[in-house]
Write a structure and sequence with these properties.
By secondary structure, this protein is mainly alpha-helical. It is built from 9 helices and no strands. Keywords: Membrane, Transmembrane, Transmembrane helix.
Length: about 190
């Protein structure tokens, strides 16, 4: 069944839209608060289709993500009772408890790790507020780690450019279905071990 090729083509078309940078910023902002899809999904094709704009896209993504992280921080600081119900309803209590334990152990270093890695950033922005982490170190660490991640993603995507876009397009079904299989296996293992 061919599914991922059409999605890939649509994503590449959106990456060249005149409002693509605004959408990238919006997705980056809301991802740091609640949205489940990381901005890389837009940053990669945008940087591939316009390599000369990759650094600018990484900067837009970073600024929007840090601003969203600040909102997440204040949600954790002032509205955690409201958020706690959502965490329980969405079945994320165990993940949230684990993140809180990491905060107690690692402090500001965990913000750097969460900002640079594919770990859901929104969990850590809210946890930082709940833990009443010092605000300026939180913002500085978030800015450094998010920029490091997004500039790396953007520059690697720009370096590959259109030549890799064509190669990825030819293999997209294998990549897409392979990712689904790996995710299902990982989930099954996690559920079994748990």
């Amino acid at each position: 069944m061919k599914l991922f090729g059409a999605i890939y083509d649509k994503t590449m078309a959106w990456s060249q839209h005149k409002f693509a940078a605004a959408w990238l910023s919006f997705v980056s902002f809301i991802e740091a608060i609640f949205f489940p899809i990381p901005p890389d999904v837009m940053l990669i094709p945008m940087s591939m289709s316009k390599p000369h704009m990759a650094t600018r896209y990484a900067i837009y993504t970073t600024i929007a993500s840090v601003l969203g992280g600040i909102i997440g921080y204040f949600i954790g600081l002032y509205a955690f009772d409201w958020v706690k119900g959502i965490i329980v309803d969405w079945g994320m209590q165990a993940n949230f408890d684990k993140a809180m334990n990491w905060f107690e152990t690692w402090g500001v270093a965990i913000v750097f790790l969460a900002g640079f890695s594919p770990i859901p950033y929104k969990v850590f922005t809210i946890c930082a507020g709940v833990m009443q982490m010092a605000f300026l170190p939180f913002v500085a660490t978030a800015a450094i780690s998010r920029f490091a991640r997004f500039i790396l993603v953007a520059k690697l995507s720009a370096w590959g450019g259109e030549k890799y876009a064509d190669k990825i397009r030819r293999s997209i079904e294998l990549i897409g279905w392979g990712t689904v299989v790996i995710a299902v296996i990982a989930y099954a293992i996690y559920t079994f071990v748990k």
